[in-house]
Amino acid sequence: MTPIRIPVPEELTQETGRALHRSAREHALQQGGVLLVDLSNTRTMDARGGAWLLAIAEWAKARGGELTWEGASGQVAEFMELVEPGLKAALRKKPRHVGLLENLGDATIRAAAEVREFLNLLVDAIYWTILAPFSGRGFRWGLLLDEMHEMGVRAVRINFMMNFLLGLTIAMLSAAQLRTFGLGIYVADLVMIGFARELAAVMTAVVVAARTGAAIAAELATMKVQEEIDALRGMGLNVPQFLVAPKLLALTLVMPCLVSLGMLSGIAGGMIWGVFVLDIRPEAWLNETLGAAKLKDIFQGLFKGFFFATVIVLIGCHNGLRVEGGSRGVGLMTTRAVVQDIFLIIVVDMLFALFFYYVVD
Amino acid sequence: MYPDDSKTKDPVIRVENLVTHYGDTPILKDVSFSVERGEIFVIIGGSGCGKTTLLKHMTGLLSPTSGKIVHNGTDITLLDEEELTRVQRNIGIAFQSGGLFNSMTLGDNVALPLREYGKVGEDLIPSLVRFKLNLVGLGAAEHLMPDELSGGMRKRAGLARAIALDPPVIYFDEPSAGLDPIIASGLDDLILNLRRLLGITFIIVTHELDSIRKISDRILMLDQGSAIFLGTLAEAESSAVPRVRQFFERRADEYIAQRGMVSGGHEDEEGAE
Fold it and tell me: What is the per-residue DSSP string for A5-73?
C-alpha cells in the first residue's frame, strides 16, 4: 500500500498546523495505511505546530493507520526525536466507562471495607482507652489534659450561648401556645424536661461535632498526608493508643460536663423569658422547674452525651486516617467527618428514644 | 522559534541593587546581575542564603525594600497587580515539589493555564497537553492524579505546566533536589533540550554540584544575602573567593553556629516552604 504523502509548509505553527490537520483528515486512510509527513521543506516548528502533528497521528491511529515522517533536519529533527515516543505510542484509551452494576458492586465492597476498618478502630480505641491509662505504659496524661482543655474548657462559651438561645426560643414558641389556656407556668416544665432528656445533649453534640470533630479529622488527615502517621508506625508506636485513646478519653470525660452546662444554660434561657415576658415570679418558676426535674431524665441526657462523644471522636479519627491525596483530601475528609457526626448523632438519638419509649418508660 | 526574542540583545532580566528585609533582618543586600537571553543561569549558595527569596522577588511573588527588577525593559517593582499578572504570564515557574493541583489529573493541570489564557482553540488543547507531557517524558501519565506520581515525575509534570504557555523564561526551584542521580541527570538533559529546542531562558536555583557542572552557563553565588560570585563554571572552579572554593570542593563549614547568629537566625527560611 502506498503511503499518503502530506507536505508540511516551511513553518509549522498553530495556524499552518491547523490547516495541515484539516487537509490530512480529507484523505481516506484505510486500515493499516501509512500517513507520510514530509518535513523536508520545514525549517522551524513550535510546540503548537507539534501538537497538531500529534493530533494528526492520533487521528491516523484511531483509523487503524499510522504516521511516519521523513526529511526532518536541524531543529525540526531534534524536535521530532523528542516527541517520537508520543507519536509512536499506541492510542491511549480514556479511562473506561463504568457501568451501573459495576459501580454498585464497587460501592458495596468499599462500604464493607470501610465498616471493617471502622470496627477495627472502634475495638482498638476502646481497648486502649480502658487499658492504657491503667497499664501505666504509653498513656500521655499531659496530652489528655491539653485535649480536655481544648475540647471542653474552650467550648464553654459557645456551648453556653447556643443552649441559652435555644432555651429562650423553646420558651417563646411554647408560651405562645400554652399562654392562651392560661398555662404559662408549664413552660418551665417543658423547658426542664426538654433540655434534660433531649435538647442539651443534642445541641452540645452538634457544637462539639463542629468544633472538635472537624479538628480531629483535619489534624489526623494532615498528619497522614505529611507522613507523621507513618513515622509513628515506623517507631513501633500504636496509632490508636497514641492518637485516638487520649482524645476518646478526654471527650468522654468532658462531654457530660458540657451537657450539664447545656442543661443549665437552656433552663436559664427559658427562665429569662418566663420571668421577664410571661411575668411569672422567679420563685414560682424555679419551684416548677425543680418539680419537673427527674434524675432519670437528667441521666438520660448525660448518658446520651457519653455516646455522642464516642461517635464524634471515632468518626473524626476514622475519616482522618482514611485520607488520600493532599490538601483536597484533607478538606473532603473533614467535611465528611462533620456530616457523618451530625447524621449519626441524630440516628443514635433516635435509637435512644426508641429504647426509652419501649423498654424504660 | 521565537524570532522576535532571539534578535534583540538586551538581557531578559536585569536585577539592580536589590535589597530586601524580613522584618528588620536583611535577607538580600545590594544584589545586581543580569540574565542573557537563552542562557541557563544558576543561582547557588548554602541553605538560608536567600536563593529562594531572590527567586520569589524575580517572579514578582514578593516585593523588595529597594532596587529594580527589570523584565524586558519593564521594572516589575513599579507595576500594579494587573500589570504584574501580565508579566507573570510570560514566565513559567516550576516549583520544588511540583506545585501541582492535587484535585486535578496531570492533563488538567497542564491544560489549566492554556484554558485560562492560552489563546489556543479548545480543539487543540488535548493534543497540546499531550505534546507538552511528551516533551517532558510523561506522555503516558496524562490521566494520573498528582499523588500517584513519584518525586521525579512530579518535577517533570511541574515543568510541563510551566512550559504550557511557551514562556520565554522559566524559573526552576531545585530541579534535582531529592532525586536519584539517574533521574536528576535525565531532568538536566530535559532542561538542556528545552533550552535548545524552544529557546527558553532558564533561571535555576540549585545546590547539586553535578547538575551545576552539567547545565550552567553562568553562576551567581549568594552568601548571607550578598552576591559573592558571578561568572562561568570554569571561573567558579578556579575562583579565589574562599566561600566559592569551599562550595565547589564540598568542604564542610567549621563555623555553622557563628554564621547562624550572623545571619539573624533565619537558617530555616528555605525549609519553611
Answer: EEE--SEE-HHHHHHHHHHHHHS-PPTT-EEEEE-TT--EE-HHHHHHHHHHHHHHHHTT-EEEEE---
Q: Any idea where the domains of chain A sit in the sequence? A: 4-88, 111-360
- Ranges assigned E (strand) in chain A: 4-7, 11-12, 34-38, 44-45, 66-70
- Which grid cell sits at B123? 480543539
Give phi and psi for A35, each to the nearest 5. Answer: -105, 115
Q: What is the mean pLDDT of residues B236-264?
A: 70
Q: Which residues lie closer than 8 Å to B159 by C-beta, 6 or more apart?
A: B94, B136, B170, B172, B175, B187, B190, B194
Q: In what order do the strands lie in the sheet with B218-223?
A: B91-94, B169-173, B201-205, B40-44, B218-223, B226-231
B111 touches chain A (CB under 8 A): no
pLDDT at B273: 35
**What distance, in Å, lies between the first and last C-alpha atoms of chain A?**
90
User: Who among B1, B103, B140 is closest to A44 (CB)?
Assistant: B1
Residue B121, C-beta contacts closer than 8 angstroms, at least 6 positions apart:
A18
Architecture of domain A4-88: 2-Layer Sandwich (3.30)
Question: How many residues are present in chain A?
Answer: 361
User: Does the distance separating the beta carbons of A95 and B132 come in below 8 Å?
Assistant: no
SS3 A239: helix
Q: How far is CA B64 from the centre of its chain?
A: 18
Cβ contact A283:A290 at 8 Å: no
Other beta carbons within 10 Å of A245: 29
pLDDT (tens digit per residue) in B141-179? 888 888 888 888 888 888 888 888 888 899 988 888 777
Q: How far apart are CA B38 and CA B6, in angstroms?
A: 8
A269/A174 Cα distance (integer angstroms):
13
Q: Does B121 touch chain A (CB under 8 A)?
A: yes
Return the pLDDT at A89.
Answer: 74
- What residue ranges define each of the domains in chain B, with the CATH number in brackets? 1-90+215-273 (3.40.50.300)
Q: What is the pTM of this model?
A: 0.70
C-alpha closest to that of B169 among B89, B80, B111, B112: B89
Sequence letter at residue B211: S
B25-35, strands of its sheet edge to edge: B25-35, B13-22, B66-71, B74-75
Taking 90 as the threshold, does the pLDDT of residue B262 lie above it? no
For A45, nearest residue in chain B (alpha carbons): B1
CA distance A121 to A125: 6
State ipTM: 0.72
Instruction: List, for chain A, all residue ranges whose pLDDT scores fall below the cut of 50.
Output: none
From B195's Cα to the closest Cα of chain A, the distance in A is: 12
Looking at the complex, does the CB of residue A64 fall below 8 Å from at least one CB of chain B? Answer: no
Of B103, B127, B145, the CB nearest to A54: B127
